[in-house]
Amino acid sequence: MRVVVIGAGVIGLSTALCIHERYRSVLQSLEVMVYADCFTPLTTTDVAAGLWQPYLSEPSNPQEANWNQQTFNYLLSLIGSPNTANMGLALVSGYNLFREAVPDPYWKDIVLGFRKLTVRELDMFPDYSYGWFNTSLILEGRKYLQWLTERLTERGVKFFLRKVESFEEVAREGADVIINCTGVWAGALQPDPLLQPGRGQIIKVDAPWLKHFIITHDPERGIYKSPYIIPGLQATTLGGIFQLGNWSETNNIPDHNTIWEGCCRLEPTLKDAKIIGEWSGFRPVRPQVRLEREQLCFGSSNTEVIHNYGHGGFGLTIHWGCAQEVAKLFGKILEERNLLRIPPSHL
Ligand SMILES: Cc1cc2nc3c(=O)[nH]c(=O)nc-3n(C[C@H](O)[C@H](O)[C@H](O)COP(=O)(O)OP(=O)(O)OC[C@H]3O[C@@H](n4cnc5c(N)ncnc54)[C@H](O)[C@@H]3O)c2cc1C
User: Fold this and answer.
1) What is the DSSP letter of 340?
2) Angle between helices 10-23 and 141-154 (to 10 degrees)
3) What is the 3-state secondary structure (H, E, C) of 37-65?
4) Are 19 and 333 in contact (CB under 8 A)?
5) Which of 44, 195, 203, 243 to mutate to test the pocket of ligand 1 (most atoms within 8 A of CB)?
6) From the CA of 62, how far away is ligand 1's center (Å)?
7) CA 316, CA 294: separation in Å to the nearest integer?
């Protein structure tokens, strides 16, 4: 059973790990390979701040809310374990700010200690009149990808730096199952008019005195189009750019100024912070995550493809729930092919 995962961002690597962890002991012939034309530190995942926070509105596919919750619970269960620091994982608390009252988000009972801001707290943010405080998690993309790569390497998973031109090419080389985790580039392998880039640009600064995330919202303009400040384990991420349909990979000065001025207005002490770097990346925006099986026929052979892409601005927030769902679909393929060995009884 040869499984090829295309993509080495958070979605590809976590899916590869989940499948290997779940099935290697019951399927000796399981061989997992990862193909990607970019590895860390060059993926979109490396650009992300890594805050666990879904969008404010409920997803149109209710399964996505479950996958978000499963991811939060999984990560929370690892807090305090020897892995936490190496994974780039930590608890983080902070503010979501609004200019008028809004309904509570559907994830208020998933995060810890969700509550509305008090008048005294709001006094710290003169441009805002309403908000929430809660504790969530940070999972730094770059650190997490390194950790996942180490876990996969230990398990014997092989990595190949290559651009895949078609599913057919991979199928003809002998893959039984292809897992498509190509993020915003999935449309190059199979047209998908629902998938679009949501370009972001971020500035990383050294500001160790900032301990809380501050995310502002302007519901009329849309998600992540107003300033946000997210402290990570080493650096703090400043952002507030979300441009649908923009494929420009280069950082630009107007966006830099928008981020810098917006964040300094929100947190004036940032003016003294040293800029460490600046990056742009494309959120794989889609009305719903595409997570489904598809059978493709090339010549006489049937190849199974499991798609797992389109995680927008919440890939780290949802990844583990999605990886588990893919593992479940993969298990069904094994069952259909009578490949699952019943584990020995312990009675
Ligand atoms: C500025 C910004 C901030 C963000 N902040 C957060 C945040 O705080 N929290 C959060 O949860 N999410 C955040 N996100 C979203 C998150 O980064 C994405 O949802 C996530 O990284 C998507 O992961 P992925 O693995 O699908 O894609 P990627 O990380 O882009 O990985 C795609 C992989 O597929 C490979 N690939 C694609 N096509 C091919 C091909 N044909 N052949 C070979 N390889 C191929 C690429 O080389 C790459 O390895 C942010 C995104 C941006 C841009």
Assistant:
1) P
2) 30
3) CCCCCCCHHHHCCCECCCCCCCCCCHHHH
4) no
5) 44
6) 22
7) 25
Strand 301-309 and strand 290-298: pairing? antiparallel
Cβ atoms of 304 and 180 closer than 8 Å: no
CA 130 and chain centroid, separation? 28
163 lines ligand 1 (CB under 6 A): yes
**pTM summary value:** 0.96
Helices (H) and strands (E) in the chain, counts: 9, 15
Is residue 224 classed as helix, strand or coil in its secondary structure? Answer: coil
The one-letter code for the residue type at 328 is K
pLDDT of 246-255, one tens digit each? 999 999 999 9
pLDDT digits (tens, 9 = 90+) for 254-306: 999 999 999 999 999 999 999 999 999 999 999 999 999 999 988 777 899 99
